[in-house]
From TrEMBL:
PANTHER family: SEGREGATION AND CONDENSATION PROTEIN B. Belongs to the ScpB family. SUPFAM superfamilies: Winged helix' DNA-binding domain (SSF46785). Pfam families: SMC_ScpB (PF04079). Its main location: cytoplasm. It is found in: Cytoplasm. Keywords: Cell cycle, Cell division, Chromosome partition, Cytoplasm. The gene is scpB. Homodimer. Homodimerization may be required to stabilize the binding of ScpA to the Smc head domains. Component of a cohesin-like complex composed of ScpA, ScpB and the Smc homodimer, in which ScpA and ScpB bind to the head domain of Smc. The presence of the three proteins is required for the association of the complex with DNA. InterPro entries: ScpB_csome_segregation, WH-like_DNA-bd_sf, WH_DNA-bd_sf. This is Segregation and condensation protein B. Participates in chromosomal partition during cell division. May act via the formation of a condensin-like complex containing Smc and ScpA that pull DNA away from mid-cell into both cell halves.
Amino acid sequence: MNYSTLKSVLEGLLFVSGDEGISAKTAAEVVETDVEVVADVFKDLQKEFVKKNRGIRIAEVAGGYRLTTVIEHAPYFEKLAYSPSRSSLSQAALETLAIIAYRQPITRIEIEEIRGVKADRPLHHLVNKDLIEEKGRADALGRPILYGTTKSFLDYFGLASIQSLPEPTISDGDDELEERTKLLFDRIEGRQLSLEDLDRELDTD
C-alpha cells in the first residue's frame, strides 16, 4: 500500500470509528503496517487539516485518534441543532422522554402507567432520534424491554451526565415528579431557560 492510499484508508478508519476513535495500534493491525508509521500518518493528517483550513480536525485523546469539529465553528452547529426547520419533539415524546430520563431503566408498561396512555409511538420516535435505547430486559413476565437515555440525549440537552439532570422537589409522590419532569423538559425544549436557570427555579420553589 503506497503512502497516499494508506493516508486515505486511515482517514476513513477515523470516520467509521466515530466518537470512540481508534488507537494507532488498532489501526496498524487493520492496515497491516507498523504502529510508528500509522502514528506518523495521523500526525501528518492533523497538520494537513489545519493547513488547508478543513472543517474537521483530528484530536488525540487517551492514546487514540478521532475526528472532531473546529471549536470556532460551534455557533453554527448550535444554530443547526436549534433550527425551527429541524423536526421537534412532540408533547407526548417529551413527556415520555422525561419519565425515562428520571426513572431509567424503565419498561413501556411502567411508562404507560405513569402517563395513562399508550407509549408505543413516542418510544418509536425517541428511538429513531437516538435519544433512548434498549438497556436490557426486565426480570418480569415476558421479559419486557428496559429503556434508558443515550449519549445523544446528553448532547441534545447539554448535560455532562445523567446525574446533571436538575432534581425535582418531590413532596407529594409520583404526581409531582411527573409534573416537574414535564415542566422541566417543556422549558428545555423551548430553550426558554438554561439549565442553571432551571436549577435556581427548583431551588426557590
